[in-house]
Structure formats: C-alpha cells, structure tokens
UniProtKB/TrEMBL annotation:
Principal place of residence: membrane
Transmembrane segments: 44-67, 108-131, 143-176, 188-211, 223-245, 257-283
Topology term for the membrane: Multi-pass membrane protein
A Pfam family this chain is assigned to: Virul_fac_BrkB
Recorded GO CC terms: plasma membrane
Species assigned in the record: Candidatus Devosia phytovorans
PANTHER family from the UniProt entry: INNER MEMBRANE PROTEIN YHJD, UPF0761 MEMBRANE PROTEIN YIHY
Protein name: YihY/virulence factor BrkB family protein
Length: 297
C-alpha cells in the first residue's frame, strides 16, 4: 500500500498539470470564438495596412539620406521568408519608385508620411488594445483622451521595436554584405541575431500585455506564458504562410492586382489573432489558478 501511495503521489502532479493545460486550451478556444476577436483583428489589419506604405515611405526617405539604393534593395531582399514574397516584391517596387523621385520635396513628403503612418498605426493599436482587454472580461475604464494617449504611446514604442527588428533582420545582413571584409565574426553575429530577435519579441509582447490593457490584475506571472507562446507561434505562422503563398496559394490568379493587398491583410490579420491568443492564454491561466486556489481555501 505504501508503494501504491508513493506512485500516486509522484504521478498525480504531472497528470494534474496536463489536465490543467487541457482545460486552459479548451477555454482559450471557446473564448476566442465567443469574443468579437475576428472583427477587432480585422480592424487591426485594416489600419496596419493603411500605415504600412507611409511607414515604408518614411523609412526610405530617412535611409535614403545616408544609404545607397543598392543597400536599401539588399535590405528588402533580407525579408524573404518573414514577409510573403508577393508583399516583399511590392515593397521592392515601392522602394524603386521612391528612389526615382526628386529630392526637392523630401521634408514635406517625410512629414506627411509620418503623420499618416502614426495616425493609422495608432488606430490599429487601439483596436488591438481593446481586443486584449476583452480577454479579461473587464471594461475599459480609460477616458477618451487617456485611451488615445496610451495608443499613441504604444504606437511610438512599437515603432522603435520595428526599427530594432528591421535592424536585426535586414540592416545588419545588408551591412555585412556591403562590407564583406569586416571579419570572420560576422557569421556569429548573423546567427546570434535570431535568439536576440526572439527575446526582444517576447519582451515587447510581455510589455504590451502588461501596460496596454486596462485591467486590475497586472502580475508578471500572468504575462510571460502567453507572450512566449505567441512569439513562437507567430514565427511558425509567418514561415507557413509564406510557404503557402509562394507554393500553394493562387492569389495572383484569383485577385490579380489586388493580390499584394490581400496577402498583407491576411498576414496582419493572422498576426493580430496570435497577439490576442497570447493574451487569452494568460487570462485563462490566471482564472484556472485562481479557481484552484479558491477551492484550497
């Protein structure tokens, strides 16, 4: 009997842990289907698409002051595998068109592009903030001005994060390609940028889950699981979606000139869904743990 009791005590915690995760996953699926997540993520994709090309224009105008056109083209080529090929080719064409324009109106064009990109991106961030707040079933109590200020602040930080991501993914490899004589250590740097990118993604998403939603409980232990799962899932979805668009999808034959817009909207929509999914996992883990603690009292 002692042996049986010992086996039960040693095997029950893993079973309980697996049962807990099964309940969390099932409740996450139910929550994602109950909430108006799809509509909110569609709004994120729409405003993200509106902000994309003004943001690209701003980046090209800024980098064009310091870099050669061939260097910028190499940066776009480095996005292969992360951004679908149809979208990457459109970005390359947009880059060529911008570089062919005269530099006379550079300052005005840069200011207008930045304003359009900031407004569109902040609206998308606001929709994403609302969707993540809904996962905790708590109303957003911020007033109108506070909500706008928070969305603008998060958009600004997200812009800095995107600059870091583009630096790791595209700028550093393009720099090494332009200056191959820098040394043999560049292979190590090119390899290390991926775990650094993964860590920055988890930190950035965890910060978004911590500060963006308007909710009472903001303990760090309910932030990291969803952030880690969301970043890993996003990388897998990006690779799978790029493969699907390039090998299996018939977007150009079906949508014609709208193929790039459709692909970009789907890519942004999937990305927004994954962010909300991570927030939902955190919320369900918190509810499950609090329910178990209430039973033990």
């Amino acid at each position: 009997m002692t042996e049986t009791f010992a086996n039960a005590t040693t095997t029950s915690p893993p079973k309980t842990h697996r049962h807990r995760w099964r309940k969390v996953i099932w409740r996450t699926v139910q929550a994602m289907t109950r909430m108006d997540t799809s509509m909110r993520c569609a709004g994120v994709a729409y405003f993200g698409f509106l902000s994309l090309f003004p943001a690209v224009t701003s980046a090209v105008l800024l980098l064009g002051l310091f870099a050669k056109p061939t260097f910028l083209a190499d940066m776009v080529d480095r996005l292969d595998g992360i951004v679908p090929e149809v979208a990457r080719q459109t970005l390359a064409d947009q880059l060529v068109a911008l570089l062919d324009q005269p530099r006379a109106g550079l300052g005005i064009g840069l200011a207008i592009s930045l304003l359009i990109a900031a407004w569109s991106a902040s609206r998308g961030v606001a929709a994403l903030m609302y969707a993540t707040s809904r996962t905790h079933a708590e109303p957003d109590k911020r007033n109108f001005l506070a909500a706008i200020a928070m969305s603008v602040w998060v958009t600004f930080l997200a812009g800095i994060g995107m600059i870091l991501v583009l630096t790791l993914v595209a700028l550093i490899p393009a720099y090494f390609a332009a200056f191959p004589w820098l040394g043999h250590g560049q292979a190590l740097v090119l390899w290390l940028r991926w775990p650094i990118l993964l860590g920055l993604g988890v930190l950035g998403l965890a910060a978004f889950y911590r500060f963006a939603p308007d909710r009472r409980s903001k303990r760090a232990k309910w932030i990291w699981p969803g952030a880690s799962i969301a970043v890993l899932l996003w990388l897998l979805v990006c690779l799978a979606f790029s493969f699907y668009v390039e090998r299996l999808g018939q977007f150009e034959a079906t949508f014609g000139s709208l193929a790039t817009a459709i692909v970009l909207l789907l890519w942004m929509y999937n990305s927004a869904l994954i962010v909300v999914l991570g927030a939902t996992i955190n919320a369900e883990l918190q509810r499950e743990t609090e329910a178990r603690q209430a039973l033990l009292r």
